Amino acid sequence: SIKPIRKRIHVYFLMTTYYTRTAQIIHWLMAIIFILAWIVGFYSGNFLSYEVDGSFKGDVITFHKNIATTIIFLVVVRIFWRYTHPTPQLPETMSPSMKKLAHAGHLALYFVLLALPITGCLYSWSVGYPAPVLYLFDLPALIGENPAVTAIVKPLHIWISWAAGLLLVGHILAALKHHFIDKDNVLNSMTKQPKD
Fold first, then answer.
1. Distance (Å, rounded) from C-alpha 33 to C-alpha 175?
2. At 129, is the secondary structure helix, strand, or coil?
3. What's 74-104 look like in SS3?
4. 1: part of which helix (H) or strand (E)?
5. What is the largest CA-CA distance in the chain?
6. Which DSSP category does 120 fall into?
C-alpha cells in the first residue's frame, strides 16, 4: 500500500530536516559552556593579576578549567552522535561553494573546540597544575612540569582561543543570516522539533 511508504518518506524527511533532540541539547550545552569558559578565560587573562588579585585569580582560572575540560567529552559525544544519526541537508538555495564553506567552517569549529581545551590541559600540566573536570576529578596528567612545553602551548592556547572566538561569531552571524535574510530552516533545525 502507498500509506506506509508515504509515512516512511515523511519520517525520513523530518529526520533530515531537524537535528535530533539529543544533538540539539549537546549543541546548546557546548555553546553555553564554551562562551562562559571563553569569557572567564579572557577576563582572568586580561583583567586579573596575581600581584593585585591574589588567590581570586587562581579561583577564577580553576573555575575556567573545570568547565572548559568538559568540552573534550562533549565534542567526542557530539562527533559520535553526528556520524551515527542523520543530519539535516543544507538548503538547496545555497551554492555548492557556500555548502563547501559551511562544511569547512563546521570542521574548523570541531578542531578548535578540541584543540582549545587540549592545549589548555597541556599548559596547566606544564606549569605543575592539574586539569580538573567539574570539581569532580582531574584528568590524568600526560606530561610533567616543563617550561619548554609552556613556552609553546601558552601562546598556542591564546591564539586558538581568538580563532575559536572568531569562528563562533561567524557561526552565529551565518545562522542569523539563514533565519532572517534567507528565511530557510537552518536555525530552526537546531532549535525546534518536527510536529507529527
1. 19
2. coil
3. HHHHHHHHHCCCCCCCCCCCCCHHHHHHHHH
4. none
5. 77
6. H
- pTM to 2 decimal places: 0.88
Distance (Å) of CA 12 to CA 21, 39, 81, 91, 96 = 15, 40, 17, 16, 23
Cα–Cα distances (Å) from 116 to 53, 65, 93, 100, 123, in that order, read: 25, 11, 34, 24, 11
Set of cell numbers at residue 168: 563562533
In this predicted model, what pLDDT tens digit does every residue of 180-189 receive, in sequence order?
A: 999 999 999 9
CA atoms within 13 Å, Cβ hemisphere of 77: 13
193 compared with 154, residue with greater pLDDT: 154
What is the per-residue pLDDT across 113-164, written as a single tens digit (0 to 9) for each? 999 999 999 999 999 999 999 999 999 999 999 999 999 999 999 999 999 9
To 5 degrees, how large is the angle CA 30–CA 36–CA 40?
A: 145
Cα 84 from Cα 111, distance rounded (Å): 19
Q: What is the pLDDT of residue 86?
A: 81
